[in-house]
Amino acid sequence: MKRIGVLTSGGDAPGMNAAIRAVVRKALHEGMEVYGVNYGYAGLVAGDIRKLTRRDVGDMIQRGGTFLYSARYPQFATEEGQLKGIEQLKRFGIEGLVVIGGDGSYRGAYALTKHGFPCVGVPGTIDNDIPGTDYTIGFDTTINTVLDALDRIRDTATSHVRTFVIEVMGRDAGDIALWTGVASGAEQIIVPEKGFDITEVADNIREGKEKGKKHSIIILAEGVMGGNEFAEKLDAIDNFHVRVTVLGHVQRGGSPTARDRVLASQFGAKAVDVLKEGQGGVCLGINNEKIIVRDIVETLDNMTHTPNMDLFKLNEEISN
């Protein structure tokens, strides 16, 4: 394989640029050409594709977001859209594609694989919800960003003796809430993977006050419900002086941590190795600190992401 492509798709994640950089630098080192696809699958179908040089990825390792941009493109779920994408790849002489993104991005790579086009999926999403890998690119940066905000909010919560509900990202997975909840010393963590009783939440706040706590921090994953709705349910039980902070898209941005830069570099280089060997239809992951290669069809069809719920139990034991 002498010419490969790379794209980023779905929500951006800190470290995506580091992964693109690794793909480009590793490919050039191996005597291959690399073409970048702008705006994900939308750009692929439109033929918005350009050759990438060493200079294009200079000073990119520390930048958040993705310089190849990203866009939602539901039409790629259709066979017509997929075949148009393959047509553009062939027009540029691209023989294999590195897809960096989350679940939707993997589904696109999965579809191309079923049409016989070699793809390698690289897990890049702040939610850490991709099956077959312990961690995804962007997760470490995000939980550190959230943790910084939580430390600041705790100061205010203590000063005003209030209950704060912090809504964090995590539509289907509670990893961000679990990790930042334990790391921040939050009193309670609410995640999609575990049901909750609002009266028990209220009882826990009261018990904390009886023990002398001056505040209560509740970390809420957005997939459960919105922060304001949750606060209304609490206020309907008692006046807890609830304040809501929705961290929103601030969780996506920022310079990636060392952990994310290294992980992205490992994934990017490995993706090139896999394509150089003539493999396709695979996705990468990290398990027990080792980069692994899995069949993408088997991974998406037979595996699911499971968060570390031991963290939930740990927080229950040490938060009060």
Automatic annotation (TrEMBL):
Summary of the function given for this chain in its UniProt record: Catalyzes the phosphorylation of D-fructose 6-phosphate to fructose 1,6-bisphosphate by ATP, the first committing step of glycolysis.
Protein's UniProt name: ATP-dependent 6-phosphofructokinase
Pathway(s): Carbohydrate degradation; glycolysis; D-glyceraldehyde 3-phosphate and glycerone phosphate from D-glucose: step 3/4
Reaction equation(s) it catalyzes: beta-D-fructose 6-phosphate + ATP = beta-D-fructose 1,6-bisphosphate + ADP + H(+)
Native organism: Alkalibacterium pelagium
Residue ranges occupied by any Phosphofructokinase domain in the UniProt entry: 3-275
Family recorded in the similarity comment: Belongs to the phosphofructokinase type A (PFKA) family. ATP-dependent PFK group I subfamily. Prokaryotic clade 'B1' sub-subfamily.
Keyword Metal-binding: yes
Taxonomic path: Bacteria, Bacillati, Bacillota, Bacilli, Lactobacillales
Predominant location category: cytoplasm
